[in-house]
Amino acid sequence: MAGYPARDWQHAAQSQVMPNGCPVKRIGIVLFNGFALPDAAAVAEIFQSANAVGETTRSSLVRYEVCLLSATGGRISSSSSALLSTETIGTRHDGDHFHALFIAGGTGVHAALRDGRLVDWLRRTSPCAEVIFPIAEGRLLLDAAGLGPTAADPRRGAPRTQVLHDGLKSRPSPEIIHPLHAALAVVESDLGAGIAHNIASGIEPLLETQFTAIVCRNASVGVSEKIRSSARWLEMNGERAIKIDDVAKVVSMSSRNFLRRFKTEMGVTPSDYLLFVRLDMCCRLLAESDLPVDKVARRCGIGSGGRLSKLFRRYLGTTPTEYRLIKRRSTASA
């Protein structure tokens, strides 16, 4: 798959039991048509790498079975039209217990939100998952299932699944944790810091783009719910032509108050934030796909390849084509 780990990441979804009888822990990755491929693929690659280490050293304490899941099963198309085979949610004979459950992001989440089977399954399965982690827009599916950060606490004394919106318990942080960091934290907990560090060194180029930290700032605990919602709306609609006045109306604020609050809480203006959202989208699409630069620019709301090239030179000191080549080389050597 161009631009992504050379190994076929779907191979990580095959169940294998170690001869020494070490426990197998299930890792679920929930997909839907139009999901964003890069982060989901990288999460699977981490657990595949952990299994490979165990095979090499013959001393692994655990083996991971990565399950690619969807509401209907069968072939699911990513936002870049890559097709992947999935199993239907809720069909396992051993129940729906997961050591960790990752919910993919991507523009297809809007249609997935209307899939009652998927939302109901997430609601039923959450008590059986030790960790649930939404990838980008995947948090909207958790919100729909009543598992978001604003969900009511369970009754006193009842076990609670960790929904990792703002950080792992072992690594509290005011910033949202990238899904790759969450996957690495699972590996570190099971296999130790040394193995996790070795795996991280191999996938480091995939962890983020130069704009990820800015785009993820909406998850900071210091950001109010209205500004957080407006930032998410900008992320979900970044490919469209947007007027800032329209964003202010979405959160029922005056344009003047919205501009002031957004700049104070997010550190950038709404217009700059929207630009960084679009550039982040462009970086990921360049790394993930073979789409021409002009088409990448249009899909991400930039307008033209010429404007995208100017923005890349300004913020990254390179061209989109050179950026793609650099990312390809870094992932191929991982």
UniProtKB/TrEMBL annotation:
The UniProt record lists the keyword S-adenosyl-L-methionine: no
Gene3D superfamilies: 3.40.50.880, Homeodomain-like
Keywords: DNA-binding, Transcription, Transcription regulation
Domain HTH araC/xylS-type: start-end pairs: 228-326
Keyword Transcription carried by entry: yes
Pfam families for the chain: HTH_18
Source species, domain of life: Bacteria
Any one GO molecular function term: sequence-specific DNA binding
Protein name as annotated: Transcriptional regulator GlxA family, contains an amidase domain and an AraC-type DNA-binding HTH domain
Lineage, opening ranks: Bacteria, Pseudomonadati, Pseudomonadota, Betaproteobacteria, Burkholderiales
